[in-house]
Structure formats: structure tokens, C-alpha cells
Amino acid sequence: MSNVYQSWASEGCKIHYVSNSPWQVYPAIDEFLQDNHFPKGSIHLRPVSTQGLLLGRPGQHKYESIVAIIKDFPQRKFVLIGDSGEFDPELYARIYHEYPDQIAKIFIHDVTSERAMHADRQGASRSDLIYQGVKRLMSSSSNLRRSNTSSEAMDVFVHRDIPKEQQMALDPRIPVKTKLEQFEHRMTNVSLGMRHGVFSVFTLASQLLLVIADDS
């Protein structure tokens, strides 16, 4: 990622590092940036206070810091870079709609979908094992022996005093919205109302250079 930042800095871009990390970790962050050859830039970390810990909203410091930078440099265009792990997409969308003329690009590093697909596969496997286990249990249960098949017994069990949503979640035969689909739906919602080409999701840092090159 540092090579992307270095490339932008060589073109005259100014870098602002904004994080929700507390100021106490500044030495470690500064050392990390230097060791990994990130270009120099301003660093904006979160002040720690009891009130902030108790009443602070997630991402509020990052939002306020970015807005302050935008207001300090009203003549500049900004590229916002974050990841999908927390609130960056929603936060950047909010900033875009408040300052659309100053936000040139929003890049979100996809750290979610690969893990989501892995979780979906594990979840499907667990659901299938649970389903098969319950079928075996129900087929041997005396109060359900009147059913012609174990599948019918399972149907009796599933449709008794269980909400419909939970039935769908427990029954692997019924397709449910996966975590990957939820991620894609989230990204689509976040980008609603933005100019074409402003919002991008990336997995490799090299993709950022290609996007910027295509736009130049």
C-alpha cells in the first residue's frame, strides 16, 4: 500500500492519516509508517477521555477529523481510503453527501467478503450436520413414528412453534441471504446517490493505481 501513497505523493498529493486509534499509540504508528516507507503526512488520532469512552459514537473521531481537514482546505479535492471491516463505508458516504464537490474518490479495501464466504461455507456445513442429526433423532422418536419418512418427521418438528425466519435459517434446503450477499448489498446501499465512478471497492493496492491511471 505504501507504494500507492508514494506514487500519489510524488504527483503532489498531500497525505492525512486519520485513525480511531488513541494518541497513546502514536509512537508505534509513526514507526510503522516510517518502517514501511509511507510518505510523510499529518497524523490524526483519537484523544482518550472517560466521556468519550462512555458516550462516543463509533467512528465519530474519524468523521470529525476528516471534516475538519476538508474545511481547512476548501480548495482541495480528497480521496478517502478505508476498509470494510467497520464503519468506513457509511462514514465516507456521509462525508460525501455533505461535501460532494470535494470528494473525488472513495476507495474501500474489501476485508470482508473473503471471510464472509469462508464463514458461509462453515455455516452451511454446520447447518447440514445439525439438520441430518435432528432428522435421525426425530425418525427414532416414538411420538413421530406415524410419519411415513424421517423427512416428514422433520417437517413436523420444524413447523412447530418456531418462527418462520428461524425455520429458514435452520433448514439448509431453503436458500438464505449469505454474508457475502449482505456485504454486496451494504456496498450498493452505501454508494447510492454518488456520482458515477466515485465509489470503488478494492482487494489489491495495485488496483488503486490502475483506477487513478484510468481517470488521469
UniProtKB/TrEMBL annotation:
Residues 1-109 form the Phosphatidate phosphatase APP1 catalytic domain. This is Phosphatidate phosphatase APP1 catalytic domain-containing protein. InterPro entries: APP1_cat (IPR019236), Mg2+_PAP (IPR052935). One of its GO terms (molecular function) is phosphatidate phosphatase activity. PANTHER family: PHOSPHATIDATE PHOSPHATASE APP1.
